[in-house]
Input
Amino acid sequence: MQLPFRTLSAGYWRHHRARALLIIATVTLGVAAWVATSALNGHLDRGSRDAATPLAGAADLYVSNGDNGVPADLADKLAQVPGVRSVRSLVSERVRLPGLHDQTALLLGTAMEGDLDIPGWDVQVVRSPTPATFRTIFLARKIAFIGKGLAKQLHSEVDHFDVLAGGRVERLTCAGMIVKAHGPALPLEGNVIVMSCGDAAAVLGRPDFVSRIDLSLESGTDRAEICRRLDSVLQDAARVWTPEEHDHRARELLTGITTGLSLCGIGGLVVGLFLISSTLTVSVAERRFEIGVLRSLGATRAQIGALFVCEALALGVVGSCLALPLGLALAHLGLGPMREVLSDVFLPLPALRLEVASHTWIGAIAGGLSTVLLASVIPALRAAREDPVAALRKLPAGQECIHMGIRIAGALGLMLAAISCLALKGFLPPRIGAFAALLMVDVAALAAIPLLAGALARLIVRPLAQRFLGIEDYLAADNLVRSPGRTGLVMTAFAAGIALFLQTGGLIRSNEMAIGAWVDHSIAGDLFVTAGGPLTASGRTTPMPEAVGSSLLDASPELTVMPMRFRHLDWQQAGHSARILLMALDASTYYALNKDRLPPLPELDLYRQLAQTPEAALVSENFAALHGVGIGDNLTLPGTAGPVRLRVLGTVVDYSCSRGAVVVDRSRCKEAFNVDLVDVFGVYLPPGADIEAVQRRLQQATDGGPQTLCIMARGEVRGHIMGMIDRLYGLAYTQEVVIATVALLGVVTALLISVLQRRQEFGLLRAIGATPGQVVRTVLAESLLMGGLGTALGLAAGLPMVWYAVRVILFDETGFLLPIAYPWSAAVAIGCLALVGAVFAGLGPALNAAKLEIAKAVAYE
Output
């Protein structure tokens, strides 16, 4: 194989360096998108687990009860269960630091042995106080150890600092005790405050409760049997979770995001696959004569096929190696904005370092090599099937009908398989049916687009160009018809990028319309008061005491104030389990304040019934859809002192939680769900009041208090929520820019190949009087036609993709049945940008064609 490689590979690619570089660039961008996606998904996975279960990993089982907490006295009872080796109680809660501009920190309470000897955690104090100071600290209460990150901000020599927790300010004793940690306890070096479990619970105002209890089991014990024993001890006061269940519950909130990012990463590789296959196919067509010579000299079909596969793998190795640092750089660039957006929308994610696992690197290289390997299969088989006599005589290659038939059969087969997956998705593992169907439909569409593009060019574009346009435009249209293999795959890549952009735009527009209408109709207050940040359901705000509402009334007695509380519950019933959102509000106040509002609020009468009916609840529409709960059903929720049984009165539209929300009357459920504190006050103004003036007056009256309050008008809340949606989907747009770049590289590649293949044609045109400008116009016209056809087919494919994404994928993931809003203005803008991009992509090849020397071009063989 050494001689064929030197004659057909090294020499050919040295002569076509630009083409080789474009293939490498295509592989590099596609694999880089995959590396960035995998790295960010891994970071999200670790971040969501650490946020939901701080310092997990050392325990075999967890006992928790959501935000309600677990009675602290259960630890001693659980320690007596046979098979349990050790028990550790843990308190974890986000608190605010008034001395650091209300910055957040994680308060951790745990059982300590000695100074900071925490069993199972590799931690130590690197700056212990002097013996005299230590005696003072030992006699003090609420001793705190702080992480290195927090120490840099508080200054290590500080003896005391304040925290805002449980609606009040507490002073903690520190004296420079700074935590240094290793291994699973490494997050303790961040913005973390470590205390004894009892002190931490007291700071939070719940001395009898802990956040969770970690259990370590004796070796060789049956975990399932231990769980049954623990359940008999807990008596519905809390629930036992395995580490796998804990991780699944944490990932569940972000699964839709991580899956979407993965699909975009795969999309980049798929688009690159078609472009690489197109380039290699043209390479085979250009080298038919050399292939015929080798076959005549005794080379076997297997050797010829292996030659082209090895060429593709060599280029893939180079592209994959270059993609690794580029993908890591992209991941670092996107890490901060992504964490900020997801912390606003879902749950506060810790600021962890970006770590790329070895399987990510291996997967990236394997993905790049697999892409070029698959892309080389058809060109390699075509080269291996070349008839030596026909190749040496330069007769046209045959079997185009067979290739077209295979492509049509493959596209139809994939469509039938997609329909089957969609019809049987209820019998398949979660997400497999919907996402597999989407992937197969996309691949089938990509396979069919070259056929559609060729038919359109033959039946519409070329006749119109011949009749209404100049000779330059007709030559461009004719070349599209004569080279369907080269131009069809490029238009496929172009269409894929356009369709993905349109799908994302449709998702954003549908979300904006639905959530905007929900905000206008359901979030009915004039002003909203929160502490620590704007209104979200992700847990980033700080709970407030009810006394804050009284201070608002003192500043403006004409106001009406309605408190609301949000709690996350780990709910399980009849085979359904999820982390859901409990919303507690004063139903009678809500009904009284909104009954005369025009237009009337939908489902308002349900709140009147909720206020009048004991042991009742409303559920969000997506809760009912995801968990099969209907009107009149009984719902059992985990409460502070045990299960709370409620009857479902009806369903309401609510987009606060992707796994569903339950609305209860706060006045009836204060003790059952520990909703004494308030997350947000809805403030209602009398008719005709000046909202901005009242907002300023309330802000001035509350400034300087223990909590920094955020007072927002309803329009500001709406803008904040809409902004979160735009930023959330902006992550997907960033990845699609990479796919669009790959598609534009495909246009450049196709046009460069076209110029090389048509050198003699361009030479003859110049010889009979064509100007360089006319040659440039011909190439640019071909570029514009490829971009135009690809854009049209992409828009046609994107419309059903919008429907599928909104009505199938989004509904399966969240239960939200949103109205479909097609982004027509965005489609026009995307189409125009695509055409401009195609023209700019054709400038280089066009100028190259105009510079051809007439004599050399006419003599080109």
Q: What stands out?
A: The longest helix spans residues 301-345. Residues 39 and 857 are 49 Å apart (CA to CA). Residues 516-717 form one domain. The two ends are 26 Å apart (CA to CA).
